[in-house]
Design a protein that fits this description.
Strand order of the largest sheet: 3-4-5-8-9
Largest sheet: 5 strands, mixed
Organism: Thiohalocapsa halophila
Structural class: alpha/beta
Number of domains: 1
Protein name: Class I SAM-dependent DNA methyltransferase
Oligomer: single chain
Distance between the termini: 31 Å
Shape: globular
Strand content: 25-35%
Length: about 180
Amino acid sequence: MSHEISRILAATLNDLGLEHARAPSGNRDKSFMGGYGTKGVDVYLSDERHGLLLTSGVKGLVFDPRKNLKNRYRDMVMEALELHRRFPYAICGHLFFLGKAESALSSKKFGTVLGEAAVLMSGIAQRRLPTDAPELYEEIGILLFDPGDPDSLDLAPAGIPESLQAATYPHRLVDAFNRRNPFY
């Protein structure tokens, strides 16, 4: 599922002007040497001269997010850290999806799982300068859907700030890339 979303995201980035953005072919991630070892990415833009210029992870939790949300959050932090340690000027984003039905489950501190995800994701988003903390992402987008129900797709979940909505994520990612690489 995330490989199909990766292909759609890469095509959208191409349409928005990043014509060299790619999703790996087949069902394997593209690997780059990170700060501490190799790291697989879902969508990327790179060249021989500069290395990795842009990447987007495409992962989430469809089932049992209450149990695994904090683990996914920690994985995301380490992914950004790995990539920014080796490529401090790279634009790193993440498209994070949750099961729509599961996102409405209760969370002790945040009301719902979606509320908890929004708080966690906002804490690691909005890296503006290459000198900012390497464990942060330049952009994050949250979307909801229920597997097997294409009509359930929600790119702008209620209660999620626009700065975290999947509906604006590709545009924000391209804008961040263009600000950081005005001559590319």
